## 1
Amino acid sequence: MTVSVPPLAIAPSESGRRGNLAGGSLETSLSAREVAQAWESFAAGEDIETGVRPEILASWYRCRDRYEVDRTLDVAPGARGDDVQRLDNGVIFTTLGGLGALAGREVEQDGAVVTVADGDGRVLGAWGDPSARRRAELHNLAPWSSWSEQCTGTNGMGTSLEVSGPVTVTGPEHWCEAFHRWSCAGISIRDVVTGSPVASINISRWNAALSELVPAWLTKAAACVEQEIYRRAIYEADKVISEFNRKCDQVADPFLAMDRGGNVIAANDEAVSLLGLTPESGISPGATEPAKRWTPDISGLPEVVRWAKERAQGPARWSGYACLPVSPGEDATPVTLRPVLDSDHVVGMLCLFGVREGEPYEERAEAAVGPLPRRIVGIRNERLVLLAPSEIRYAEADRNIVWLNTERGRIQAATRGLDNIERSLLSCGFSRVHRRFLVNLRRVAELERGIKGELFLIMDPRSHESVPVSRRQAPELRRMLGI
């Protein structure tokens, strides 16, 4: 069913003419002055917890401590020219560009600019009030400029690529001081298979606030475009299942099919048994719905899938293999990956266990670990909570949201994705014991066995707080704990 995107209005309907700015000048509002004072303190190197919206403060931490964005930057850098899109995105950007052009016509009288960017923050198109566009171009808010957080700091487009849902950035909430006279709102469009952003749409206005209705319009617009991504994901799954079924009778070993994100779409009986899947999983006949796919708990598999996707680009037939710890307590098993292609694009992988075929995978040397983060940032009750790694007992993933269980209670991480939290805590004594759990090994108090031999870590004996250990991670965990 097609989502109907309502008309967009960013100023009260009674404004009647350009220049009658809703909400008044951004410089004169009390809240803007308070945020500006917080920005001054934070930019000078202080750590703050209040006075700024949590999502903005989390962005400031990324800009200052991770990306080291120059806050005096006044012009966005140019974007690289190579095409790195991860989907067959022609139809997606046609749809998004159409929405951008429509919105640009509707907000022209209100002095606003509508921009569309790709998943790397590279601006692809701009529409709206000609005078506002000329002013925006002074900051290089124009096609082929880069507005990712990493390049240009906190802004509607870049920050929306870091989080889910609509993002508003008003006045001094921007990380770069030169943009403090702008207000903007953006939303990312995400790949339903990998969860990564593929595009963003943003509305910017000079020296005036945006209407409270803008985030709702952006949500509708994103849903309209994501329908095309969902349709594409179902089409890709059908192609992968068809190829899997065609090869299945020729294979006696464990054999499964995965989507581009490394999630299992279909598996033969031998693979179901090897991976411990249940008959109720729905994987055997094929899981076309993205939400029903299953992520294998095999250490190193995501990295191997990413490697295979990079190596398999193009029309040449390719296959490769890696040796991975598939079964606990046993030697690593060879796993061969064969890409499933559609118009020379990788749409999935066929995975054969116990087979060595094609190019061998060589594990990449990890980059040297930089300075530990000053704090792990969490959000609770509209406030930012700064946590030392030692305060965290374990992290638990609920899809892309991560919950930190700490001495100060259960706190949502400001960073999304357990993989991202794991990278931040790599050198702090944390270990992934389950696809949903990351534990602080220094905080493990007791070990407990379940009635079926399952292993649980008791993190807090007082409350009997426990974390399950996957059977594949149990041998390595025992080695790390010396038991």
## 2
Amino acid sequence: MTATWKRSTTNRRLGAIGTLSVSLALVSPTLVLAANGQAVASLTSWPIWSVFLLGAFTVALVAYSIARMVASFRSGHDAYHIVTLSLGERIGRGTGLILFGAYLCFALATPSAGTAFLADLCGIKTLSRVAWGSCAGAMTIAALLVLRLRGTSVARALLIIEGGGIALLVLLACAILFGHGQGDGPVAAPPGGVGGGLMSALVVAFLSWAGFESCLSLTSDTRNPQVDIPRSLYATVALTAVLFVGMFWVIERGFAERLGGARALVNTPDTLSALGVSYLGPWSARAFGIAALASSFAGLVAPMTAATHLLSSLIPARRHGLALPIVGGVVLCGQVLIPWVLGPRLPPVLAYGLLASCGAICIMVVYQIVQLGFARALIDGRLLGSPAELVVPLAALIIMTAALVTTFQAGGSAETTALLGVAWSGVALGLGAVLPSRHTATSSSP
């Protein structure tokens, strides 16, 4: 495959580890394990770990499609370039705009979660809107300062933050597995819906991986993107799948033994802190609180990094220097407005869930577009492979469509976020179709 534009590799500094750190930070496994299991347990009679196992399978299908196209399309540097090459430039631009909106939603949402963790760590039961906005704004300014560092320094900082949280998770898992149980009842969540509420719960599990593909936005800064990007994708999915499936099995066991089972799990604000106090001692509540706060900060830096790189790809080269100030300004202004707009009705954690879910719906739409692009590239012969590989996009599309339809049927805030996410996706695709072209690309068989 050839293209009329290429970017010099002299400035590329990141390898597979660096791109992995950004994807891992945006997934924020410590944050997911602390806060997402409660929603799954309230929706389904299936074990939480089994729901996340199905979610891991679906995300692995998406990772396979993306990695195959990145490795085979040997040109380009844009995060949405694989869609451009497989489905055309107009849909590619629209996909880039959808991703940009999704990353902005994550960047706007995460400081709210960090504010809630900070308040809990300091023993503050309620936060005023002024304090909420001040804390979130301070996190954003700190993230902007970090992003002024060299790319490798940012990647190293993100990896250290998530590595510390994972080390605490391993310690907690060992304490639960090798500790002495004080109960023997199995974890049985409240029943819910058809099939025990599996598809409703799968939405929560699947959205926990939203943004795992964010390393694509660093393609232009990666030394060997055709090798390093696929490795980062597979490593992110494999590591988080082991963490989510294994740790949720451990979490359910820990609650069944000492904390009252699934009923107590559903009503626990932070599962990791609750288990830590019971199995490791009071000190662990503060340790897990700090880890969750650090994970939320990493989860702010990562989407701002991805959004900045993506905006640089969407705007003319002479304006690349404006990408970070634009992203930072939007996120900072958002932190001032969000507490006043959502504060009277929603506490910080619920505001985080609302905004992050909207971004996650956008990501789900992008994943579906990627599957269509992968299928078309295989059918047209632009991607060398076996026709049997069409099973991958077909299976992923069926599962994601079912999850998305379930979200629309849920009603309440879930339906609202789904409508907002799909609405922005439609607007972005429309803008991609009418905006003037930046590049002219010609391609042949890879």
